[in-house]
Amino acid sequence: MTGRPRRATVSLSRFLTAIGDLIGKMPAQELRTVVLAFAESVEASERQAFLERFGASPARLDEPIDTLLADVELLEEEAASTDEPGWDDYDDYHDRYGWSSDDEFRQPDWVPSLVELLRRTGTVFLKGDPSAAVQAYERLFSVAEGALENGWSVAAEPGETAVMKEAAARYLRAVGESGQREDRPDRLRRAATLLGRALVGEDVSYAAVEGARVAAPAEREELLSDWVSALMPLVEKQDHYYGDWTHRLLLEVVEQLEGLPGLANLARSGGPRAGRNFLAWFDAARRQDDEAIALMAGGEGLRILRRTEERAALAERMAVMAHRAGRYTDAVTAWVEAWDSAPSLSRLLKIVEAARRANVEEATITELAKRRPRSGIPAPLRVALLVLGGRLDTALKEQNRKGPAQTADKSRRSSDGALAAEVLIPVLLAAGSDATHHDGFADSVMAGLLNAAEVHVDRSHFRAAFMYEFDEFDGDDEFDEGDAPRLSHRVRRELELGDLLVTTLQDMAVPTAKRNLYLEAGAALVADAVSRIVGNKDRRRYSQAAALAVAHAEAIAIAQGEPDGDAAVEAAQSRYPRHTAYRAELRSTWTRSPFLTSPGRSR
In this predicted model, what pLDDT tens digit does every residue of 24-74 receive, in sequence order? Predict the structure, then answer.
């Protein structure tokens, strides 16, 4: 499958060097033409900031602050008189058309006025009156917060969202510039809390806050220190609205104020966000090309952190770094640490890839399969690991105990057990009939089930199948300057589980007695799975039940002859005489098998 095209990126240093070279070669008149052309594209609210880059003094205010605040008051009155959305109408719309991504249906009529007032307040801020801007911003974002609490969407369009984020950065910069230092941490904390509730996920970086004005903040170190004092209590509260955002903001501020030592102290201090702190320390060291510090951050994190997704993400970063340095054995070790922290199919396949590169694939997977299972490994994933590790007998024993992953959630345990059976069935059938060595196997229904095993494993683990990654994490991309811990649902990899299962079966030496045992066990699991699907009239899965029944018949045909295979599929069809939809699905699947006589065609 072809991924989405990736937009090319250029590092800041290379970009500035290239611009400098171009300007140095450009005649003055041509440079003047280019700057004027760019100036024409600058929005009205940004023109004063553009002039300030050339040393122009701030212009006098065009609008009295009293006029702006009066208009803000009118907006507050209109917002206060706005009821909650018409949920009955909205529910009717949802019932008729389904969920819509268009949030305009629930946006108050006064949102354009809010956006315009935010723009006007930005002009006040840019023209040198941060105290007045703070007054207006606080009241405007309070209006947005109240609307969101009532169930409305606010400024959901991309252009409106950009105005909100820009205004938020200017608001925070204005708070830092106004008032006395004694109460500045409290004022910054209140502003961050308000924005956390008004923006709802549209967080603002500290780089954006400093970039809200061309000039650097006065007494920058004192301001950064006050930011730390403001954010620490918010981060410790673990608040649903602003906890994650303020933590990311804190990491930026600490790195600006104290550099790598500050991030190290933050990580070593422990707490519920220690995992992300170690990730931030590691990433910052990598951005600075300090591999020794990155190794220190990773090593300490793996020793200290509990086995969580964050620890797994840290191990993955160490694996990528080791791979890029040519330390392939270390990469294997790091991927195993990631698996131990939070097992997933993607991590298992990454272990195989790394172990192949280090020429230790068989030893690594065998050792991994021998370990006592952790309670966090879903049954289908455990089955896949055991098969790849050459422990098919163990996989069968654990499946007979209804799956190795005993969880408190009975419904999930039952579902995992069923999915594990559907992963194991084609393996048992192929091993019992030695199907992988027969011509036509690649086009068989049995081979299709092996290729589909990955879907069953992923379905069992989708609730925990996220990981912290780099922006385009595939084990080979360079670290971008903007790397930060984030959630993702995708990991690029070279291998597919189905291909690995086929290779394992081809290399597996199975005695005749064991083949019969595997074939019988596979037949029993097929009968149970088909009965569960068809007996419960689960029509969405009739195609899966038909594939299982036909795969079993294929195994019989290979092991005992085509007539016996045809008899097996005919018996599967006659077992459910009243289920016409299932019988139709079964006949359709039957016709696709290269090992069986198609229905209606003589042998």
Answer: 888 888 888 888 778 777 776 677 777 777 776 655 545 678 899 999 999
Q: Which residue has the tokens 């019989």?
A: 556
Distance CA 23, CA 415 (A): 64
Q: What is the pLDDT of residues 170-214, one digit of tens each?
A: 999 999 999 899 999 999 999 999 998 888 666 789 999 999 988
Question: Which residues are CB-neighbours of 366 under 8 A, at least 6 positions away?
Answer: 389, 390
Question: Is pLDDT above 60 for 244?
Answer: yes
CB distance 265 to 301 below 8 Å: no
Token digits of residue 589: 């699947």
Whether 258 and 277 have beta carbons less than 8 Å apart is answered as no
**Rounded (10°) angle between helices 512-535 and 542-560:** 160
Cα 15 from chain centre: 29
Q: Count of alpha carbons within 13 Å of 252, Cβ hemisphere only?
A: 20
Spatial separation of the C-alpha atoms in residues 332 and 511, rounded to whole Å: 33
Euclidean distance between CA atoms 455 and 487, whole angstroms = 21
Q: Which of 34, 62, 63, 39 is nearest to 50 (CA)?
A: 39
DSSP strand pairing (487-488 vs 467-468): antiparallel
The SS3 of residue 468 is strand
CA–CA distances in Å: residue 462 to residues 59, 349, 450, 473: 56, 16, 19, 19
What is the rounded radius of gyration, in angstroms, for the C-alpha atoms of the chain? 31
Find out whether 242 and 195 touch, Cβ atoms under 8 Å. Answer: yes
Instruction: List all residues 6 or more positions away from 467 whose beta carbon is below 8 Å from its beta carbon.
Output: 309, 312, 313, 316, 342, 344, 346, 487, 488, 491
Angle at 48 between CA 194 and CA 177, to 5 degrees: 40
Query: At 98, is the secondary structure helix, strand, or coil?
Result: coil
Tell me the residue length of the chain: 603
pLDDT score of 15 = 76
